[in-house]
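Dear colleagues,

For the upcoming journal club I promised to circulate an example of a predicted protein-ligand complex. I picked one with magnesium ion because it came up in last month's discussion. The inputs are reproduced below in full, followed by the predicted structure.
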Amino acid sequence: MKGNPVLGISRLGRTVVQCTSVAGFLGLWEGLVWLGLFPPYLLPAPTAVATTFVDQIGNGNIPRLLGYSLRHYALGLIWGVSLGVLLGLCMAWSRQLELVLDPIIALLRPIPPLAWIPFAIIWFGITTQAAAFLISLGAFYITLYSTYGGVKGIDWRLVDVARTLGDQSNWGIIRRIVIPAALPAILTGIRTSLGQGWMTVVAAEMFGIQGIGLKMLEAAGLLSMDVVMAYMAVIGLVYFGIDHTFRTVEDRLLRWR
Amino acid sequence: MRSTKLEVRELSKVFRTVEGREILALKDINLEVLDGELLCILGSSGCGKSTLLRIVAGLEQPSAGDVLINGRPLTGPGPDRGMVFQEHLLFPWRTVRQNVEYGLEVKGGPKTARAQECLSMVGLENSSEQYPKELSGGMKQRVGIARALANDPAILLMDEPFASVDAQTRSDLQAMLLTIWWGTRKTILFVTHSVEEAVYLADRVILMGSGSGHIIDTVSVDLPRPRYRVSPEFNDVRRDILKRLGFLTGE
Ligand SMILES: Nc1ncnc2c1ncn2[C@@H]1O[C@H](COP(=O)(O)OP(=O)(O)OP(=O)(O)O)[C@@H](O)[C@H]1O
Ligand SMILES: [Mg+2]
């Protein structure tokens, strides 16, 4: 077995340490609750959370509420990312557009997405659209700037090469050179949006839109902290899955690097 | 009599720097290149070789003068002129085959067979699915040549394509280029700063003055091919060129 030259620990050894560490943490936590140091409404035991988690899957709450949340998330990301990439490309391509749009975006961007909640509710009501709107804002700014930066930073000599090969139209150059060359930056922007958007989903739903966020708020009102924590676990696990999947896709798309 | 393929008339190019200073990169260039001729442009760094090639490629506008191809004025870049760049400039996100297919893709229509044919010309038929990052410097230049050949351009513009590879690879690439030139009868403008390379390859060598951006002399190389770099005749031409460039004044 090959050891890690830096840590002096093998891969298997490291996995063992990691598992032990997590098990120890959960065990300590369980022990503290079991000794009665914390009442369950302040800190539920891991075993209680696990039981609730299974119950919430069994009674259909987790699949149903997760379905709502994922719908808000997906809609918001699709709008935010597509508009962000599109406008980022246009701004980096056209100097005029850059001059006109840059100050407006610089003005609006410092306002965090959640500060738009009152307007989201007046404009869209307590609806899927309202949640999607809030999520799309964050995704929009992030992908806009990453795309813009990515396009500005590409090796423009490659455009010369394309032109000598007969590629004359702007659209041909954008499609065959600019987008693939800026793809690493665009994908980084999308990945950052995935994280920021998932946070926004939970926060936005706490204002009354059906989904995981609202469920957590309701459960907290009843002091069912085991339910709250079961949904926190859902949030963490789902994001872990999303991020992992996206990284796999990203590695595949950028295997030329 | 062979016809004139490319004509450059009274060509000048002035660059304006960011601070507003003017740089005269090319001055009163006159040039006539015959159909199927292999012309080398020889000069030291900064004398305007790349600029001349970029103007012929249509990537740069001349400040004064004309470039005529088959007697018609140049309007911009086009698939009738292929260019091989000083820094290979392959598209890193495309495989070797996809790099070569680029021009064919733009034109539309079938591409795989032609790409494969061009890769065979440069001896890379077995590396078609590799990415540029996986290639050596010499292989990258071969791909660059195959990519320029794919459109079957009448004129091939080559900007110091072999300047950054080792001596052995360079002489392999030179031999390969001559084989391709022989097989396709293309007109080639080949920029170099190596006297030896120019004498080995060229029908005719254009000498550009260092830093002045103009042509100081033209030398025809009438040696039969294949040429031997160590033969006395080869060395005579080499010495002649060095003398005209202002070296060897003591002899
Ligand atoms: N885009 C540009 N803007 C300003 N000056 C330029 C530009 N391109 C080239 N020049 C200047 O024009 C002159 C000729 O440059 P060019 O690249 O044609 O030289 P070269 O003969 O190809 O040199 P090398 O052998 O180093 O490649 C140089 O002085 C260079 O600084
Ligand atoms: Mg140059």
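Two points we might discuss: Helices of chain B lie at 49-57, 96-107, 112-121, 137-149, 167-184, 195-201, 232-244. The two ends of chain B are 38 Å apart (CA to CA).

See you all on Thursday,
B. R.
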